[in-house]
Write a structure and sequence with these properties.
Chain lengths: 390, 390, 390, 390
């Protein structure tokens, strides 16, 4: 029967996704779960609790009469930006919370997972709930990527530079031919219109008119970016947005994140530890201002998100989130869902730039060429890179 | 001869524009020329000096061999954001500078105007210089609007609420029928392609594909916005962007700028002084967050700048700068000019939203339906308003 | 032989003091060792490492040729404010450091303790080193008090309000008669002049001339302070220093630290957990501004540190650090030691107020009536209280 | 008759003091009256209005039934820190207020002066009011010194470096023999106990016990301080308080205020304009941190305020406010006056350091060897200097 099949595949997906979050955290010490070095980075235990809280709050509590909340205080602790749910007793900061302990959080996950399994096998699980379950799983996959970027930030800003995993995510570095792929002026269709899950911000599919454009078949490499650095790119305001130039001066910016010049050699903190910068590797950890300045120095530009999507089948992507020159704004027929779930995307549609593609930290099966990632233009702790256009 | 005619009309335009800046300042006390209450507002004497410095620096110095700089120190004082020109001895703040005095600034204007008149009559004035002169005049017209908005801010934030002019800019308030104007899906052409002056950011004319949309024939009135306020619009996060909601809370925002509830009555500081809010007048002095929240409360939205431009011949505009839901980004074939003049527009193309139309403070002859104004989403000291779309 | 005896008692003191720091941390979860909620509070593992680093850096490295540094990186991590020693690779924040892990820190302690024991038994241990060893032990005792106050802050600012120990530090609350003890005008002698250890800031003993004064035999209780709160003390600027009043307004201050009004009842977070405020208990966790305002409301004042010391044998003290109205300044013959050890006290002699006595968190044997504690006037996470004078 | 005589001399003093404030402002342009470059500096027109408001509010309104307030709004504008009086409509900043205009302020002064003259001649003027009038005049004299220091700051931070007066305050620079004056241990009497006016903070006269001390007969000169600068004083933390060292680093401090190294020469902005630093002149415009660091570098110290007062008849003083190593605290029998006048001094008795003496900017007749000036330790826009002790 259709529903059962669907349900079974969902049950399997639920188990896989939930297990992968814990798998990502396996190399951590307990202490690594707790700290929050900057406001954008969350403690790993918070990610583990928050993704669990999502299933408890949005699936179990409203739909499973047998469910008892694990701990009513956890709503304050693991709620993120959902203004609809709850208030706070003590104004605090995720990185100040030593409790609940890591083992409490794992007990919380175990409890909710067991109840979810009971629920998914029960008659309370209705077809109408499936989309919300899908959302919860995609939500957890987004946090899996954040888990990796945040763990990297925590370990990479420790003066001992501990490795996460010695062999972590060594991508093949086949040097490929770089060329400009050309596309002709005309109407293109943009947005999601297939089967399966997508976020609300990818809808609805709509027509756009694009001018002639060209886009690179390859991402910018460390070696290419180093030329920009050595040519004085960080000290010449002409390549920068006004806000970008202010960012350079206020932060005394000189290089991508995780680059350290030690005894005359550029070193890079990867999840495997500190190592020499590999000039042939795709550049990583630049922000929008740096990506734009690099493009300006090359007398080129970043693609728009529409150009990127229209061209995406012509190049390989997925190693870096690629900055576009598109602000994060609603598609023509975008509709915000009512209630707390509607806070998911729409309320961020100002002051952020779109990134397209996926990265080495993105969970398998969690990428699409219509996927719209978005961050403020000064952030660079995600696995971000540059693809040029003109 | 073509050139002479052109030149004559430019000479006349030069005199008119320059005179109008001083005309705007006539009602001021000397003290009003000096202060800078917030970083976005400049002292009026700075506007008068800065617009003069533009002609001195970009027209006279490079093109008129007979010219002697009025005071070499003025480059530090009246330079604005042009990173290419000059450095600073003392880091200071426009609102801290009591000198040059107001009479010094008027002497500076007089000196540069006389030299400009000599120059424009001389053989040094070449056709190739005309576009830069046009830019200088349009630049001064932009500062004329800022002069009015900044004077309003300075006087409107003084506890004595002094009037600027008793009869200033009383617009006719004919209550007109409001209706939604409908436009059909298809390709539209956007951008400037006529004769005469435009800014670089309006070019080049290009095709866009728009979905069906509807746009209001009228601006939102004070009375309509008051309904939103009284319905609790400022205390319900659901209508706000996340950044907008933070802005509301940090600033304890409760009303448009210049509104004061005194003894139970909403009062408004206009350039004529403090007066009761006129419910039929077009709403003024809201920021992008407020405009968006109002639209969300009405279950509508702001138009994009492309929709606005495509529809603009179907409604009357010009009383308020109208917030659009478009981020300020380059048009497909936008080219940044080389040198300091190229810093004019392109470097601001991040983190700002586009406003379309013009306002009661815009100089006559300085508006076009392709004009792209832009400000950060939290600013509201310009004469800004709301036109709804869906 | 004199030296051996001395050395033996030092060896015993070394073991006792070092063991007590670990004893204090026994009730903690690993996560509790890591966080830093405010800049004044350090993570417990940092205290454990820093006190160890002191012995390594100032005793073992310069005096014990057989010693090998445990980990050269630890100098960056566990150095505190000693400008003389080392520089930093990465600018960081104690609360961001998940590594070294808690077990690493305990291994570090064990290693240094073993080497110290070897050293103390060896011929390298000279008499001349004893004072520095004494300083190291007193330094660790100071950090033992900070361990308790910081643990309280970490747990007391967690929305789960976990208890540290259920029976922790329940002081006897004998209600005693309160009266004003009177002292006559004249010359008194102030400062340390005995045998045994004292800090450099307690020297040298010197004469002061005091007017007639009276000082309370008892500390202010919670009940007495609650009267001040209920009489509107926090909303009447007349009782406050100008800086204190700014502090009240900026922090919206309404009560001592750790007080929470829940369902109409004043609750207090003690190390045993959240409990009702005990009106007969000595008030705790007020800052200098609050202490001064309370005194002003009672039409009295705080004692000076000279009055406190002169009168100290006439009352019992030791439950609360008692704010005085004396700024932390050098005694007439104060001499700053050369080198890093000289940074211990003298460089803080500005912008801080003196507290006298000791508290329930002070290690046994670590108090004297000449002891000068000092903190900025806005801080109140120490176990601070009020004794009135006039 | 006694009262009349007293009254007549007060009338004369009133006229003289009031005239002198306007005399100080005579060289100013209108624009100079308006700006406020930093929070510690007030616009000159504010000083003129505020001192006038004092007489209106504390003398005329409560005592002269015939008096009509000049403008009730001025209470918001010219009130300073008196929490007792008034509230605010608009939160603003003195440097943002272009109105009341300078001519309005002079009209206000003229109006109040006329009414004061009427009042002083009337039977409403009672003996009991004389102390408050004295306070008002001394208050205005304090603001006369601030007028000079604030005008210097305004003009000295303008890139045009305009002179205030070409011949302003050129003190004789007789190089005198410098020696250490010695004083013996014992009881000294400190505080005001004479006839005539003093501030409440100078009372009451009381005994202190001082150790042997020595104090320099001369102030430190520019040349001596330059040696400290050239010896690397600003880059060696050992000479600085911890807070002082933070101040150095945050402000990148390298020299006294108003010193500019131009083409290799140290220049100094005096009220006569920019000129070369005179090595024999008494050092001016250092803060407490700099004064302390200089003393530490000389292996000496700053005197306490008690030492200074005890020794003051043995040296000449009055050119610089001399930093002491005494925190600003109440004398043993200090009593705060009730009401707004009581806010004058007592509420500042925390977080500030005492300066003794007077300066070239102090009004004639406004200095005493018991006078206690006080400022935060990081401020240096007053005419401050250094006298060493040991």
């Amino acid at each position: 029967m259709e529903i059962n099949t669907h349900s079974k595949s969902l049950v399997k997906k639920f188990r896989d996704v939930r297990a992968r979050s814990e798998e990502i955290c396996r190399p951590l010490e307990i202490e690594d779960y707790v700290v929050q070095p900057i406001v954008d980075v969350s403690p790993p235990k918070w990610h583990l609790g928050h993704t669990t809280w999502f299933f408890e709050t949005f699936i179990l509590v409203p739909n499973f009469p047998l469910y008892e909340v694990f701990d009513p205080q956890y709503n304050f602790v693991f709620n993120s930006y959902y203004e609809t749910i709850g208030a706070r007793v003590i104004r605090t900061h995720r990185g100040n919370l030593s409790r609940p302990s890591v083992s409490d959080v794992y007990r919380y996950r175990k409890y909710v997972d067991e109840k979810m399994n009971e629920f998914l096998d029960s008659h309370y699980m209705k077809d109408a709930i499936a989309p919300l379950l899908e959302l919860g799983l995609n939500h957890e996959q987004q946090h899996q990527e954040l888990l990796i970027t945040d763990i990297k930030y925590i370990l990479g800003h420790n003066p001992l530079f501990p490795a996460y995993k010695k062999d972590s995510m060594q991508a093949e570095k086949a040097v490929k031919e770089k060329r400009m792929l050309r596309f002709s002026e005309g109407i293109y269709e943009i947005g999601f219109d297939g089967l399966g899950f997508c976020f609300d911000n990818e809808m609805t599919k709509h027509k756009v008119y694009l001018n002639d454009f060209a886009i690179s078949s390859q991402l910018v490499t460390n070696g290419e970016y180093l030329e920009f650095m050595e040519a004085g790119g960080y000290s010449d305001f002409r390549y920068w947005h006004a806000d970008g130039w202010n960012w350079v001066k206020e932060n005394n910016a000189l290089s991508p994140l995780y680059w350290h010049k030690i005894d005359g050699t550029w070193m890079y903190y990867s999840l495997g530890g500190l190592q020499e910068v590999d000039l042939n590797e795709e550049l990583c950890h630049v922000n929008f201002y740096e990506a734009s300045a690099y493009a300006a120095w090359k007398a080129m530009r970043l693609p728009t998100e529409q150009e990127w999507e229209a061209a995406s089948s012509a190049f390989s992507w997925g190693k870096r989130w690629e900055w576009t020159n598109s602000a994060y704004l609603p598609y023509p027929d975008f509709k915000k869902e009512p209630g707390a779930v509607g806070e998911y995307n729409g309320k961020f549609m100002v002051n952020q730039m779109v990134l397209r593609g996926a990265s080495v930290a993105t969970p398998p099966g969690h990428s699409r060429n219509t996927y719209r990632n978005f961050f403020q233009p000064d952030l660079k702790w995600q696995f971000t890179g540059i693809r040029l256009a003109k």
